[in-house]
Amino acid sequence: MWDYTAKVKDHFLNPRNVGEVENPDGIGEIGSLACGDALRLTFRLDDSKRIEEIKFKTFGCASAIASSSALTELAKGMTLEEAGKISNQDLADFLGGLPEEKMHCSVMGKEALDAAIANYRGEPLAKEDFEIVCKCFGITDREIERVARENNLTTIDQVTDYTKAGGGCQMCHPKIEAILQSVSGKTPAEPAENRLPPGKKLSNLQKIRLIEETLEREILPPIRSDGGDLELIDIDGSKVFVALRGTCSFCPQSGFTLKHFVEAKLREFVSPEIEVEEVKS
Amino acid sequence: MKTVYMDNNATTRTAPEVVEAMAPFFSELYGNPSSMHMFGGQVGKHVAAARERVAALIGANPDEIVFTSCGTESDNAAIMGTLHSYPEKKHIVISRVEHPAVLNVAHQLQARGYRITELGVNDKGQLDLVELRTVLSADTALVSIMSANNETGVLFPLEKISAICKERGVPFHTDAVQSVGKIPIDLRRSTIDLLSLSGHKLHAPKGIGALYIRKGTKFAPFVVGGHQEGGRRGGTENVPYIVGLGKAAEFAMNNMAEENGRVRELRDRMESELMARIPNTMINGDPEQRLPNTCSLSFEYVEGESILMLLSDEGICASSGSACTSGSLQPSHVLRAMGVPFTAAHGSIRLSLSIYNTEEDIQHVIQTLPPIIERLRNISPFWQDYLDGKPLSPFLSGSDSEHHVH
After folding, report:
1. For residue B96, which of A257, B118, B140, B233 is within the disulfide window of CB 3.0 to 4.6 Å?
2. Any residues with CB less than 8 A from the CB of A117 and at least 6 apart, and which?
């Protein structure tokens, strides 16, 4: 049972500015029905370019509806510059706080406002430049980085609470961790091979053991929890040969998983030169 | 404001006669049934009487009943107790729509090297029995498939499943937590090997359950300790709660006809009224093969948590399969397994009745829910779009990155 503040309940039960502005100056649409949260924001400016009318339509939970209502109340009367500075934390503060797991509703509000302003200015939201990190919810690296920075997030759980990224299959957790570390200025852990004194190399036996350990500890648990499995077939220098088993053997994402998860993890923990290849048997 | 409790699949009210039956076992008859003295020993006969009543409810022999702390423990014990009895076998078959007390046990076992097959369901929530036949092997230690689904109420064909397992010599366990007390079960006419039940789903208190183990079934104890329950489940017997479960079993037997008569009729009428008054509504699950008390509906273009909160404000208690209420960020695994369309997956509501529900209760729901859906549809962007006949867009389906895939 969510612990909602009186203000959240009020903005859910009596939302302000529900509707769609006729002949709007700006429209922003964020989220989707499939995703479980969606917001359509429309506004019209007055002669001095201040937001005269702003309305919302939201598909989502009490937090989503309340956040949208709060957004319209805050933005009304502002210039676009002022409105663009409203942060998701401002929305949450206005409502007296949101449960951590619902912070992504406030982020959706802010993104819809950004989208509407960009729409008014004729700027496309250039998503092609950015990489989708979380495939389950379609969240880009830029979005994670921005929300993490603006809200001082330090853990993967927080990123999930604020953006939903990592809340599905969890395959993107290593990438989220890497983004968090770059935001906090920390350097990521070195792979084992790079931590050796200069001139030293990992012996074949050491490399095999490290690869097996990394598989057991980091790679196999999430793969197995989805019904898949990997069998280590052979190791030749920096080439690691694996066979796909279980649900992996017929999964269309298996190529992606091998490169972006299995290989990435082995490069992170063992050696940056590792290449993973599939053996079909 | 009167509470209209429509969430009986989540938990039920402890029947007043059950509370009354339990009371003396706290203050006067508080002895340990295993004690040598008369004071303790006399309690033993009340435990035995309760065991007989639970056995009678499901057509079992009293020594086939093991009392546990809850349905989850019964499920854990059934699975682990069977696996430990066949340590060389590493394959388990379950369905995709099992309760987490079975599903998560299976996932944990998978991480420890067991091979799990999760049988899928069709859009009505039913299994493909040909698939079951195909996946069984000499390596299969156990098949665990629930009797009735907690979210949709769909009933699985237990006797057919059981027959297939018997033919292949594979033990069959069923999580019958939702069906015991609601529909008749007769294990004398069955080949089911293990069955879990839970007290708080049949008007006994929370914190008591039972595991049926057919005579001759291999079972390694899960909760190990003293020799209680014939050495099958250690721990001093929870006497007051066992007595309560026994009384609740009797209560269930006495009310079985009404549950399948009057309560079924209330559910049917409430459901058809709601379907008639609210457009774009669908029933989740096989409407023919399901529990008499469960009604799972999906309303297109609105979201479950907001429906529940507005219902709660009117005193109506229900639950939902939406992402916001599931504890994860995805809608319920049951609705996903059934392939419920994305326009409806987040807008699901479950109403589950009991013997205590009345005509006034369903009238309150029939009057209250349609305006709630209308109100939320007026706030949702998708309803007006649908009425205007707007085509499928990424805003609807999430098929591009800007609008988030799912």
Report:
1. B118
2. A26, A28, A80, A83, A84
Tell if the CB–CB gap between A38 and B381 is shorter than 8 Å: yes
**The token pair that represents A165 in the structure block:** 């990224």
Q: Which structure tokens are listed for A78?
A: 């502002």
Q: Is A189 within 8 Å of chain B by CB?
A: no
Which one of the listed residues A105, A134, A172, A248 is annotated catalytic? A105
CA torsion sign for B310, B314, B317, B318 is negative
Rounded to two decimals, the ipTM of the complex is: 0.88
Between the alpha carbon of residue A183 and those of residues A145, A146, A280, B131, the distances in Å are: 7, 9, 40, 49
Q: Do B401 and A30 touch (CB under 8 A)?
A: no
Smallest CA-to-CA distance from A17 within A65, A54, A47, A49 is with A54
Verdict on whether the full-model pTM lies above 0.90? no
| Set of chain B residues whose Cβ sits within 8 Å of the Cβ of A65 | 306, 379
Backbone angles phi, psi at B359, to 5 degrees: -60, -40
Inspect the interface and report whether the beta carbons of A33 and B115 lie closer than 8 Å: no
Give the rounded distance of the alpha carbon of A152 from its chain centre. 15
Residue linked to tokens 């006497």: B239
B254: helix, strand or coil: helix
Which chain B residue has the Cα nearest residue A160? B329
Q: Give the mean pLDDT of B8-33.
A: 96
Q: Give 3-state DSSP helix, strand, coil % of chain A, rounded to 5.
A: 45, 20, 35
Cβ of A29 and B381 within 8 Å? Answer: yes
Size of interface A-B (CB pairs under 8 A): 130
pLDDT > 90 fraction of chain A, expressed in percent and rounded: 46
In the numeric block, which tokens belong to residue B374? Answer: 């209308």
